[in-house]
Amino acid sequence: xxxxxxxxxxxxxxxxxxxxxxxxxxxxxxxxxxxxxxxxxxxxxxxxxxxxxxxxxxxxxxxxxxxxxxxxxxxxxxxxxxxxxxxxxxxxxxxxxxxxxxxxxxxxxxxxxxxxxxxxxxxxxxxxxxxxxxxxxxxxxxxxxxxxxxxxxxxxxxxxxxxxxxxxxxxxxxxxxxxxxxxxxxxxxxxxxxxxxxxxxxxxxxxxxxxxxxxxxxxxxxxxxxxx
Length: 228
Hints:
By secondary structure, the protein is α+β, with helices and mostly antiparallel strands. It contains two helices and 14 strands.
């Protein structure tokens, strides 16, 4: 009996390794260390150490103009994140655009002026308001804004605290402007700082050899119990 229980314990431990082993990769697609010469309306933004979350530079803007690039960086199926900070939370909004092209973008919006987070379709760089959820903000406080971009335009926006892992709020909606494109930024009424845009690959179980061995042990244990 003791031997049989030990076999089960080892097998279950190895199966746990199977369940929790994963490939999680974050690829930085913009850190503003190389400048913004390739961005449209780049004169509306300022690169400064004062706007940096990490590294030497971050982007600051309060001009109300979209600063964007149209190369194919992101697409449906990606999970994107960006760091955002407000110099002032009494007014204004910070916009993180994705799927950006010459004809517009779609965006996840952090909106102190209306006290919420929301999505917009920004065809022609105008706006069509989508779903929103109430949210308060702090000045001089970094937030990590994440967009989970699913199939058929389904999107979820997650707002994380300054540690990057504490989830503060979420909003879900459906965007319709595009399914791939570049990235974009916009801010008005007080400087909005942006830094370190990443594409994050989700966690996927990986059947390591030890986990497969554990599955075999567990199977043998069940067979022995059935035959005994």
